[in-house]
Specification:
Elements lengths: L2 E9 L4 H10 L5 E9 L5 E4 L8 H7 L5 E4 L2 H15 L23 E3 H7 L6 H7 L10 H8 L21 H24 L7 H16 L1 E3 L1 H26 L7 H10 L9 H10 L3 H14 L3 H10 L5 E2 L3 E6 L4 E4 L15 H10 L2 H7 L3 H7 L5 E2 L5 E7 L2 H10 L2 H8 L4 H10 L13 H11 L5 H6 L9 H14 L1 H20 L3 E3 L2 E6 L2 E5 L5 E11 L5 E8 L5 E6 L1 H23 L4 E6 L2 E6 L5 H8 L13 E6 L6
Helix pairs in contact: 1-3, 6-7, 9-12, 9-13, 9-14, 11-12, 17-18, 17-23, 17-24, 19-20, 19-22, 20-22, 23-24
Length: 661
């Protein structure tokens, strides 16, 4: 036996979407109902565990056998579920990995597992079995009835008179549906095998599978949560919302001042007209309001809008029996760059913290002292928002080292384009925003010194203009709220582009190369980045050896009547559609993809550590107190062999709770 294709159907009273597979599969009532499998491409077999069938011994043994490659679509689901199931029902066949002190040791070793969902994502295809099957036009498609069958057999049901008050549907409650469920299970294995066959000409490189296995290890390890902070934050938020709502009711006389419609009408009655009550609109109304009642009501609404209790609730939902949240990172979640996407608590988009006395505020929440928190701070919701990160903690006896790359995308872009003045800035450890402003305006700029007022213009230009952005990008980045006028914007664009001629040239060189590759099916190259066309796909070969894939590219017309590249992918609507792109956008994909590869290099360099999380350019390591911060930063900042000349720098700090330093 070399390959084992697997698909399972399961039951648990835990909500999979809210809580994740780790918590879902450790529930007391978790069961595997059906086990569909194929050995080395043979006909698919379905083991009906719900009716007492048993998985053959050789298949059970293969689950922990490193010499057998296990395949599944979203393989982490099968691997984690089978880990918990084996420990309960066949402990003789369960073998963990890593050392006993590592929480990851509770699961089957991911190194002998591969995932057709990851293969699909690597090829620019969707992260759903149904979506991939449809786009590849497989002969065997995922059955659309599956969602209804899963809802019927895999989830608790509401007790009713007609179902005798039961809270779960068993096979005997609908024999016909159960037969359909077994066929659905069989078909999913067949679709997975069909995907592998169709993609066989485009294998995923072994080093990417190694990255996937490391990702699974990090997800298995999880990250500890301070549940006292979580529970008290939820309680504080409830109390704060009640108090803020009561105060708004007193001012407005409204039954429900949280209602947008009621609030708009009240504002109108008080001489204030507005189309929206979103964050930006409320801020503008506060700045222009003359009425104290209106001002007070809007400020209360602003505080209510800052409520971040959903993040704390997500933590409460996701925390497992070991006090840790697992499965927070989706490998290849962004298939244009291969970056990770967040899951469950979404570590990638947590609010930043700016409180100078963060530890003291956290202590009040930990102790449940709402009165003191309310007394000392203007806004309880704001404090709770800033404390979200601090709910992540190392386990007892350990500390966190948080280390991140300095200006990673700016460094990669400068290196690729050959913008030497920027690389010199990084080599000398200077402030890129000051240097950019100095280059743009031809005068020295220091952060807290001469011409310091120009640094803000340099910063907004750096953040908005690196990938072909213009006036619109500056505006969306908040340039007009940063004391820049509309008349300032175009000169700012012109100044940035003229001071970065190699980057500007790089955009359009990439644009020409992509178009030539698509129209003439020629291999082209720009500054070490290769573009080639194969079987209806555009591939961009990165320095790491990884490919970016674009499905069915062609030359079309953009909304301005000019020539543009389009390709098929999951767009902003979250649906499969034709997406428009051009040189600077491809450069953005390339730079973010290389930045991701550099992070992967750091993950591999530091894989001997207990890495518990990562966010774009940052690593969170749970380690013993004697581990040296400088050594971690030095190892993280090492340039990869495939880009030895890039100037990297990693900075970090030690902490007993996660925060933005």
């Amino acid at each position: 036996m070399n390959n084992l294709e697997i698909d399972i159907e399961t039951y648990s009273s835990i909500d999979l979407m809210k809580c994740g597979v780790y918590k879902y599969s450790e529930a007391d009532d978790f069961e595997i109902l059906l086990f569909g499998y194929s050995v080395d491409g043979s006909e698919v077999q379905v083991i009906d565990l719900a009716f007492g069938d048993e998985i053959p011994e050789d298949i059970l043994a293969a689950l922990a056998d490193d010499s057998v490659t296990k395949w599944a679509f979203n393989a982490s689901f099968e691997r984690v579920c089978l880990s918990n199931w084996l420990k309960r029902h066949h402990p003789e066949h369960f073998y963990g990995y890593s050392i006993p002190e590592d929480p990851a040791s509770k699961y089957l070793d991911p190194s002998s597992w591969k995932c057709t969902m990851i293969w699909s994502a690597y090829m620019g295809l969707p992260l759903s079995l149904e979506g991939v099957g449809a786009i590849l036009k497989l002969q065997d498609q995922k059955l659309k009835e599956g969602k209804d069958l899963i809802r019927f057999f895999s989830k608790p049901c509401a007790p009713t008179k007609s179902n005798g008050g039961r809270t779960r549907n068993l096979p005997q409650h609908d024999g016909e549906k159960w037969l359909q469920f077994k066929y659905y299970n069989k078909r999913d294995v067949e679709v997975e095998m069909g995907i592998q066959k169709r993609l066989s000409k485009y294998p995923v490189p072994d080093f990417v599978w190694d990255e996937y296995h490391l990702d699974q290890e990090i997800n298995d390890r999880g990250i500890a949560l301070d549940m006292a902070v979580v529970r008290n934050a939820i309680s504080f938020d409830d109390r704060s919302r009640d108090e803020l709502t009561s105060a708004m009711q007193e001012i407005t006389g409204l039954e429900n001042p949280n209602s947008v419609q009621q609030m708009k009408q009240w504002l109108s009655d008080n001489g204030v007209e507005t189309e929206s009550l979103d964050k930006k609109a409320v801020k503008e109304l506060i700045n222009t309001s003359d009425s104290q009642d209106v001002l007070d009501a809007l400020m209360l609404r602003q505080q209510l809008a800052k409520s971040s209790v959903k993040k704390y609730q997500a933590m409460q939902n996701a925390v497992c029996m070991d006090g840790r949240a697992h499965g927070m990172f989706q490998f290849y979640g962004a298939n244009r760059s291969g970056r990770w996407a967040g899951r469950l608590i979404q570590l990638q988009n947590l609010p930043q913290n700016h409180l100078p006395d963060l530890e003291q505020a956290r202590q009040y929440v930990t102790c449940g002292d709402y009165e003191m928190l309310d007394l000392l701070y203007d806004s309880v919701p704001t404090v709770l928002s800033e404390l979200i990160r601090t709910a992540f903690v190392p386990r007892p006896g350990y500390k966190f080292i948080v280390s991140d790359f300095s200006a990673i995308e700016a460094r990669v872009l400068a290196h690729l384009a050959g913008e030497s003045w920027r690389s010199k800035v990084f080599a000398e450890g200077k402030d890129i925003y000051c240097a950019s402003a100095s280059q743009m305006f031809g005068v020295p700029v220091e952060k807290h010194g001469i011409n310091s007022h120009l640094r803000q213009k340099g910063k907004i230009a750096e953040l908005a203009l690196g990938y072909g952005g213009s006036i619109g990008a500056l505006t969306s980045m908040g340039a007009l709220e940063m004391e820049l006028s509309e008349e300032d914007l175009q000169p700012l664009v012109d100044a940035w582009r003229s001071s970065n001629p190699h980057i500007t040239q790089f955009w359009w060189d990439v644009d020409r190369a992509v178009k030539a590759t698509i129209t003439e099916h020629l291999q082209t190259e720009v500054n070490g980045i290769r573009f080639y066309y194969k079987s209806g796909m555009l591939f961009i070969r990165l320095p790491s050896g990884r490919n970016l894939a674009y499905v069915k590219p062609r030359i079309g017309e953009n909304r301005f009547g000019g020539e543009s590249v389009t390709y098929e992918g999951v767009g902003s609507t979250k649906k499969w559609e034709r997406i428009e792109s051009y040189g600077p956008k491809f450069v953005e994909n390339i730079v973010q993809a290389i930045s991701r590869d550099i992070l992967c290099h750091a993950l591999k360099t530091l894989r001997h550590c207990f890495i518990v999380g990562h966010v774009h350019d940052e690593l969170i390591i749970e380690c013993s107190p004697h581990v040296d911060l400088n050594a971690v930063c030095e190892q993280m900042g090492r340039s990869p062999d495939w880009m030895p000349d890039i100037l990297l720098r990693a900075d970090g700090y030690e902490t007993m709770f996660y925060k933005k330093d």
